[in-house]
Amino acid sequence: MQDVIDHLEQNQEAALEQLKELLRIPTVSADSAFADDMRKGAEFVHNALQEAGLSVKTIETPGHPIIYAEWLKAEGAPTVLIYGHYDVQPPDPLDLWTTPAFEPDVRDGCIWARGATDDKGQCWTHVLSVGAWLKVHGSLPVNIKFVIEGEEEVGSENLDVFLEQHKEKLACDVAVVSDSSQYAPGIPAITYGLRGILACEVTLTGPNRDLHSGSFGGAVINPVNALCRLMGMLHDDQGRIQIPGFYDSVIALTAEERAQFASLPFDESEWLADLGTDAPAGEVGFSSNERRWARPTCDINGISGGYSGEGPKTIVPSKATAKITCRLVPDQNPEQLTAALKNFLADNLQPGLKFEFTSQHGAPASVADLNSPYMAAAKSAIEKSFDSVPVMVREGGSIPVVGSFKEILGIDTLLLGWGQNSDNLHSPDEHFSIEDFHRGTAASAYLWQELANG
Amino acid sequence: MQDVIDHLEQNQEAALEQLKELLRIPTVSADSAFADDMRKGAEFVHNALQEAGLSVKTIETPGHPIIYAEWLKAEGAPTVLIYGHYDVQPPDPLDLWTTPAFEPDVRDGCIWARGATDDKGQCWTHVLSVGAWLKVHGSLPVNIKFVIEGEEEVGSENLDVFLEQHKEKLACDVAVVSDSSQYAPGIPAITYGLRGILACEVTLTGPNRDLHSGSFGGAVINPVNALCRLMGMLHDDQGRIQIPGFYDSVIALTAEERAQFASLPFDESEWLADLGTDAPAGEVGFSSNERRWARPTCDINGISGGYSGEGPKTIVPSKATAKITCRLVPDQNPEQLTAALKNFLADNLQPGLKFEFTSQHGAPASVADLNSPYMAAAKSAIEKSFDSVPVMVREGGSIPVVGSFKEILGIDTLLLGWGQNSDNLHSPDEHFSIEDFHRGTAASAYLWQELANG
Asked: CATH number of the domain at A196-250+296-362, please?
């Protein structure tokens, strides 16, 4: 093992140069003007994995290609699927970058470029660690499969089809994804839980046209008033969601989880000040981290109805629409709760309204087993490289690929983030700590050994 | 009196021809392309009033001119101010007119043209009746002042300034306005009450930017949820407005008024079907006509916040805005209730929000004295001409000029509508019953006598 770590240390400069080379390719998946660069990026990844000693295949899709690579000679050892993406967010607005987005610059201990942390830099730690094992020992302690796609920033439209089509080829024991963050500088983290989601839209129609609020107001149902009334019924004054059965399947946080969250450094007033609000909000009886990571929500993401131009307009509007998403936690079922939400709204509807409800999408929450040998291996590997026991956190959002791996391949995912929340993902001046890049690479190298030992 | 009526009957054809001539002038006040026509329209009115025997003045304003005319030789008799407007709504969409908007056509007992009812045709009844009196008798039983403006369809911006500046010149006992409708064909009406209004806008700001609803949702105040909650508190389940003190100054309808409203033919299901809704709505314990004419309201005219494009967007929005108008009834005070509404919202605000409240405008309701001699005169005049006792109705909207007359000149207004609700005011194929045109003219001629007798 130490030989691999030594090799990585001795080759840190070359590793950074290789990453820079990749960062110079503007792999903007959203913009067809970058189609040639997407192809170049895919080739770069293909060649690098080949050089690292894996057998590689570029798989065409209706969109951008997926690079698949494997090394499967560790008979009897676990098989690990490593996922990453070589595409990046558009670099706009360009004038807010200190140095150009696709001319990687090293300063203040970081590498600055679009994709530095999301996800080229983080993904590359695994490419490097696997390469080091194969270079030093000619073998790996586990079987490795890489899936590096080029459409993560545009919705991974073709990934699930690929996973379905190659289900057997992709069979594995656990997935590893480094596309998230540490909890804070010096506090590495494993994200073991993600919230699920349900999204829907509700439209109420009252009169068939906007009416004069003088001639008709008071005698005709106003769909904006009615929608507000319904939306106002979603929560009680304790911030608890009022949809019948909403909490029935919620698995409560354990005392250990709550203690772990509570032990994390978290300056709530600073956090709120950054968001521009002066008071915490949400469900009574839970901390902010519990609320955003591990409690379900019901947020109106947008509302519209009637006149929204300047000044007043004296109408009883014809229609009003609200877009709603609920973030879900284990074991809430998105389909069941979509139906429960729809029924709740329909049951409380005032007379005289037309009710339209569209379910948009749903995905269940996921929580990885905190006591699995994979989790223990990841903890140990991170501790060895970062000299710090990783904290166990959850994330309030969804990472669709984690759901797909669970659903299609039946496996848990280890979310091992090497970046920081402050790395400006999706913003100008994206960057990645060079120290964390190297530490992440070493942690990855340790991980293969730990997984084999587990 | 009969001489005047006979004269009017003998000259009906000429009267209609004169109206047609006025209708041919496209006096669209909203569109500067018609500026020359507005001038022509003003001149036409000026000359017609002069020919009728009044002393006339065209008063320039920063917008379109106001025609003022007077005949003040009925010493000791009441002075009546007649208000009308010579400007019209734009005729668009042109292709929906059966015959061109500015080529008046006579068919089905009506005259069809933009302005036929609103307000050239209705206004002209008074010009004709005054002219007939002066022609037949060389005098009128009352003193008459005409104010015919050219900016009613664009907000009468310069009228109040004119009223203020000529307050003494305009001194009078009562105003007469024919710019409304009968209750239904064969059911002439006097509109004796109008609702007032208060208009405001409320904006709630939560976080200083739209936030990812996964990473933040549940732990940060959502201003759209919060605004809906507040708006949902405006009414109870009986449709009663919950702003403290809101009903304190409301003068209840008398038993006579309720009986009068209840006696009017009103097919509620047909009315609702036309509006495209299948159930009446509003304050429990009142009929639809009571609700729209004589009960206060609190309608959200528009709401916006967060994402309103296609599909879902998983954000906690930063802001949400609602535009609210309350229709007011006597003796509610718009300033006091604006403050009460603001306090109600502020008092019920959840923590973590920034609250902005803008008061936009306010006007009190008005009810004319049902027992005044003017009202008796109007009833009697209408009964004589229409062979039917007029019903006493209210209107749920505001007619700003009525408020201005009350506020600046201190007088009540008799709202004597000769048109029908179905005359397509502001729509293609505007028209006016020729029979009602002549009946209205006769009623107007009777009115001067009745007012003198009163």
From this structure: 3.30.70.360
